[in-house]
Amino acid sequence: MIPARKVLIAAALVALSLFAPPALSEPPTPPPAQKFIDAVGRSVDLPAHVERVIPAGPPAVVLVYALAPEKLLGLLESWTESRRAFVPEAYRGLPVLPRLTRAPSDADLALLRGQTADLIVDYGDIGKAYAASAERAQAALGVPSILLEGRMAETPEVLHSLGVILEKKERGDELAALAEHVLERLHPASSIDPERRVAVYLGRGPEGLLAVRPGGLLSEPIEAAGGRNVTPEGPGAFAQLNVAEAAALHPAVVILEDPSAADGPLSKALDPKTVILVDRGGPFGSMEAPPSINRLIGALALAAILHPDLAPPDPRFMRALRENFFGPLPKEAPLDPLERAR
């Protein structure tokens, strides 16, 4: 027989357990951070979930917009009127943010701190200046900042990697496979002998006289399409020319970023046989404005013009490429982003 005293003690303990406050549960363990090695070898701790992204420079705007536009906190330049037509209503009102790849002011940094971002992405040139910029941005905002390689050949890997980081792996892999296919289509033209390359001039600005220099990311679509950039080499990405200097380069093909330049003094000064193209890409330029994954579109369009035997025009694929990257084309938009003005 169990002694009565022990029964009473057991009953009291049961009663206490019934009325005692519930034990405090352990706080949920946050998901582990991701470790990422960026294009300049920086080891960056990334949050497990990335919902809000600050683009450090214009090429990063294009990259994030293609992968996950809903996570893009803003633009670095307002949509132009002609390119706004390519943008879904939900993203036409994105705010313009300060650009971190330039020297942001204290007011700029304060504005960006208010965005409560999870990640800063820079994409493009990976020189020392941009690596230092990524470090400064990370320290100033307390937000992890990564720098991704902007060379066209690296586009599939970049899309795959950032797709994983943004929890858009399926989307990233889809676009990576598409980019790989474009590079394969470009290979016959991009690998031709120097003597078969066509002389090409690419100019920005309302007069088309801010010429893209060869050798950098901005000129890559020309070389990938089997062209030869006729602008002289030199410091910086651009050369500011006058009309006589640009005409003296004797390009066979001129590509103008600004449609108004097609009717300007440069066009009149060129040889009448010169082919003049206007970049009608959207929502971003197709050649290099800005120099991001959109360059694949421009390179393929240009290759079909320079070397149709090596890169035959394929309107159906061009539509699929443009719409997979950036969404449905407006009804009035030309299918080919490089429109012939002459």
TrEMBL record:
In the UniProt record, the signal sequence range is: 1-25
Q: Which residues form the Fe/B12 periplasmic-binding domain?
A: 52-310
Give the UniProt keywords, A-Z: Signal
Q: Which InterPro entries match?
A: ABC_Transporter_SBP (IPR050902), ABC_transptr_periplasmic_BD (IPR002491)
Q: What domain of life does the native source organism fall in? A: Bacteria
PANTHER family, alphabetically?
MOLYBDATE-BINDING PROTEIN MOLA, VITAMIN B12-BINDING PROTEIN
Q: What is this protein called?
A: Iron ABC transporter substrate-binding protein
Organism of this sequence = Methylocapsa polymorpha
